[in-house]
User: What shape does this take?
Amino acid sequence: MVLYFYVILCELCNYRQDVPMFTENGYRMMKKGKSRLSTLLLGLALCVPALAQRGYYKDIFMDGGISVSSRTTLPSATVLNLTMDYLTCSSHKLDGKSAYNAADSIFQLELLGGNAMDENGILLYPDGQPRFRMIFMNGGGAARHGASLGEAGRQNIRTFVRNGGSYVGSCAGAFLTSAGALGKDGQIHHTDCYLGIWPGHTLSTALSDSRTGLTLDSKSPLLKYDDFGGDHRVDSVYHNNGCYALTDSAWPKETEVLLRYDTEGRELKRDINKQAGIWAYKANEYTGRVIACGSHPEGNSSGERLDLMCAMVRYALDGNGTPRLKGELKNGEPRKMTCRTSDQNPDYTRIGDRQYHYFVVDVPKGSREVVLSLEPVLGYSDYAMYLCAGYDPFPKMENAGYRNVSSTFAKEIRIPNPKHGKLYVSVFCHTTVDTVDSPYGHQYTGRVDVLNGVPYIIKAAF
Assistant: This one.
């Protein structure tokens, strides 16, 4: 069996002395001047095990692959107590430049684009829904990394965002969001290896190995997460050949400027003062939110630059797309959720690890009882599957009016004297993979069969 490797950050309650895993409340008290010890104790008291929001495998996937920084920590994820996996490659130096071998390329292509063990790739569930809440894309060489992703990898990232996963990218990660850039010839050049998840264009700042100030627009949505010392300004953010959003005819109307470069008084090769240095885009309620940042706040572990990165991550996560219903359960008709990714029929595709599928039942007047049943497909009974129902859309285990979490796959919920109208139903797959240490970080092990999805049959009778 083909196995791929990737490194995992934020094991459950993995506290370190140098970077304590504070809850957000604990972190805020640290900012207000509490001692490190008292803040740590408060953080430990408030902290709960780092679990992804239910319905996703984990919170963040960090791309540190070919030609981008192979970062192994993200301080904002630690502060916000988010779970994270990350990709790194074994870059070595050749004639003073980073070099990668065939194994790096194959590893990255299979991880993101898919392979026999995981047909849909690490970012997506079998039905194309996002497996993580957010991607973070590191800085580096945008075109080189985009090309190294391959068409399958690029399409999977686009699908991830289109189906509700959010994206934050710094420097190269910001370039990659766009459809292309303004060239030295003064013309817009469409770049096939870019992602186009923000359908605008970028321009290089022509500023390398420097620092810039960034100011928040008065209506910047990041202000709901932090006031940044009251002056709405973040000083000395590292910048290395990043970009800004180019205001042109292709500027999408849904674009929000979050911060602008503040370089007033500096003589630079290119005047970037007041240009959009950080911006956001969310096409509609079902897509994820894309945040592009021309600078590098991601490595800071304290101060307002960390606050800035935390605010961007929170805004991105708050921008996850609204889930979609798989369809309506008809009276007495079994709905077979047995398709695979390659069948391209997401409304009838298998469920992934820690994922929800949602359905609706139109209950007629005078119904004395609704019976909901969940059954395994032959040969697939060895999975932990839960069944929930309620009158509010998208019921989850923590808020559903009815639930069955018994140990067997087969489930039944009986609702006497149901309300007339819409009854919402959800199926949750609790079974997930395990990880073990390897020379490449952690390796998927255990129930790797869940990656290609669990088939099931669901039925409503009334």
Observations:
- The two ends are 45 Å apart (CA to CA).
- The first strand starts at residue 5 and ends at 9.
